[in-house]
Amino acid sequence: MAQEDVFKKLVAHCKEYGFVFPSSDIYDGLGAVYDYGQNGVELKNNIKRYWWESMVRLHENIVGIDSAIFMHPTIWKASGHVDAFNDPLIDNKDSKKRYRADVLIEDQIAKYDEKIEKDVEKARKRFGEKFDEALFRETNPQIQEHIRKREALHERMSNALNANDLNEVRQIILDEKIVCPISGTCNWTEVRQFNLMFATEMGSTAEGASKIYLRPETAQGIFVNFLNVQKTGRMKVPFGIAQIGKAFRNEIVARQFIFRMREFEQMEMQFFVRPGSELEWFKKWKTTRMRWHQLLGFGEENYRFHDHEKLAHYANAATDIEFKFPFGFKEVEGIHSRTDFDLSQHQQYSGKKIQYFDTELNESYVPYVIETSIGVDRMFLQIMSAAYCEEDLSKDGKQDSRVVLRLPAALAPVKMAIMPLVKKDGLPEKAQEIMNLLKYDFNCQYDEKDSIGKRYRRQDAIGTPFCITVDHQTLEDHAVTIRDRDTMQQERVAIDQLFGILKEKCDMQTLLRKMTE
Ligand code: GAP
C-alpha cells in the first residue's frame, strides 16, 4: 500500500477509535487544531509521563516548573520572536491560496530526492542481486546531476532566507517554475514576512489594554524563571529545568494532521552549564535523547540525526532527531546549544542581573544552555504511525485480517481488557472482582459486549497488550486465559499472577530502568 494511503488510514483510525478528533468537529473542524479522545488522552499522558520521569525523576539535577502561557510582552521582544519569528508567505493570484515560500521550494528539493530514489529503484530491478547501490549512487551521471541541482537549490534557498532577501526567494520560485498545486499557474505575488505569534489583549480598553502573546514555545518561561529556581532550589550548575505545556503558532502551512498544529504541546528542558563545556553537554544530550526514543522499540534504523549546517546566530550547535514517518524522515525533536543568548537578552531587557556564582571557579557568569525540545503531539503521531499495523491472518483459504496498534506496553492507553466469556453464571461478577484488584495500579477495561473474537479485535485496534477471559472454569480454579496482543498466543494463568505480569510488561518503571542501564 502507498505510504500516503497508510497515513490516511491512520488518521481515520485515530478518529474511529477515540484517539484524535478534529477540534469543533460538529462545526466542521478548526484548521490545524485537534482534540484528544478517551484513548488519545491516555496515550498522550503516558508519553508525557515517560518524558517527565526520565528527565525530572531520573536526574537529580533537573527540576520541573509550570509557567503561565501569558507572559510579559517584552519577553518576546528579548527572545527575538517579535522581530524574527516569521514565515515567508506567497499568494497565488489565480487560486487565491497562500503558501509558505520556503515550503514550496523545499517541496521542489524533495522532488529531486524522489527522482533519485526512482532511478535507484529502477536500477535495482534491472540489475537484480548484482546491484551495488552505493556505487550506482556515486557514479550514475543522471543521479549526480539530480544531486548537483538539489544542492544548488538548497544553497540558493538558504542564502536567500539567511539574508532575508524576499525578492530572491520569489525569483527562485519563478526560476524553478514552481506552480500552485490548485491553479497550476506561476502567477505569484511578492513574498512577505508573517509573524507566527497569536496576539490578544489583556485588561479592558478603559484601563489601557496591552497587547500580549500566546507563547509560541515553553522555553522562555524557563529562562525567565532561571533565578527563581536556581535560588529557591539551591541548584548548582550544571542543572536543568524542565517544562511541559501548550504552545501556539499561527502556522500557515498546517498539514499532515497533528504533525504541524496551531495549538500544540511541548516538552522542553533547558540545561544550564559552564561556558566552554556546552559542546560536551550537547553531545551527551544527543546520546541521552536518542536513547529515550529508541528504547520504545520501533527500530533504530527509523531514527537519525540531522545536524544543522546553518546555525542561528546565537547557536553553536544544533541537531534534529528525525523519525521515518509515512511521509518521510521528519523532525520530532530539536537539540540546540543556545550559548548564553536567551539569559543575556533577558538580563539586558529586564535590567536584572541574571548570573550564577560558581563557587568552584570563584566567579560569576551567565550560564550557557543546551535545550532539548520535543512536541508531544508530534511524538504521539510518531508512535501511532510506527505502531499502526494491518495484518493478514488468512489461513487455509479463509480470509481474515486485523488492525493492531503495536504500542509499547508502558504507553498503551489500556493495559488489560477483562472479559467474561458470557454475561451470566457469575462470570461478570468475577471479572469485576479482578478489575477491582488491578485498577488501582493499571488502566484496565471491562468489556462484555459481542463475541470474544470481536472484543479481541477492538482491543488490538487500541493497542491493549493483554486481554483476559473469565470462563466457567475460572470460578473453580481461580485461573484465566491471557492473550498476548502481538503473538495472539493464549495461556492459562492464575489470577494472582496477573499483577506480576502487568508489572513486568506494562509498568513505566521497566522502560525507565533501561534509560539508566
Ligand atoms: N524552544 C525551541 C523550539 O520551540 P522548535 O524546533 O520550533 O524549537 C520544537 O520546536 C519541537 O516542537 C519540534 O521539534 C516539534 O516536535 C514541536 N513543534 C514545533 N512546531 C509545532 C507545530 N506547529 N505543531 C506541532 N508540533 C510542533
TrEMBL record:
Record EC number: 6.1.1.14
Keyword ATP-binding: yes
Domain Aminoacyl-transfer RNA synthetases class-II family profile, chain residue ranges per copy: 150-408
Residues that coordinate or bind substrate: R100, E217, F264, E265, Q266, M267, E268, E371, T372, S373, I374, G375
Residues annotated for ATP binding in this entry: 249-251, 259-264, 331-332, 375-378
GO BP: any one term: glycyl-tRNA aminoacylation
Protein name from the UniProt record: Glycine--tRNA ligase
Organism listed in the record: Odoribacter splanchnicus
